[in-house]
Each structure stands twice: as C-alpha cells, then as structure tokens.
Amino acid sequence: MLASENRLKKRKDFGYIYKNGESVYSKNFVIMHTINKFKKIRVGFSISKKVGKAFVRNKLKRQLRAIVRENISSLPPAKNYVIIPKSSIVGVEYADIAKELLMLFAKINKVSTNDK
Question: What is the pLDDT of residues 44-62, one digit of tens each?
C-alpha cells in the first residue's frame, strides 16, 4: 500500500491539479502534475469506466500503486501527480506498464530540471 502521506484523496486536490497542472502523454497514460507546498510526493489515480469493469480498474490501480511505491525515491520530489490510464491500457503486461510509467516520470523530471 502507498503510504498515506503520499496519497491524493480529496476531490479539491484532484480539481486543482486538473485546472492548474501540466501534463505529459504517452500511448497509454496521461500524467498531470503540479508543485506542492508539502515537499512530498503525492499521487492519485483517476481511472475511467472506459478502461473496463470494476475488477479491471481495481487491478490496474493495484499495479499502478505498486509501481509508484517501488520507485517513489526516484520520482521528482515536491509534486502532486494524477495518473490517468487510457482505455488502450487493457491487456498490457505489468512490465510494459511499469516501463512506460517510469519513462513518463523521467520526462517530467527532465522538464522540471530544465525549468530551474
């Protein structure tokens, strides 16, 4: 399980990120991100019903949480993230999901370091 301090749960937090955040895209994901004042990484997941039935969405959320938990130390710090899988994610292997997600986080990190 992802630590409580690293989770986005409130509707207003998601709304703020949707309204003010920047986004990066790939074939199967959109990641929206903003800087936060807590100096911690906070991650939320938004999975549409277009992705599949509840058991498919829940399995995907578990996989995404595991990927984030295993790699949280390598993620760009002091940011809020909302990970939005596209419907094309169905049937993709766990290793490919992890690879694509980490590639997007690396892209965010590269953009963040170039801004400084």
Answer: 999 999 999 999 999 999 9
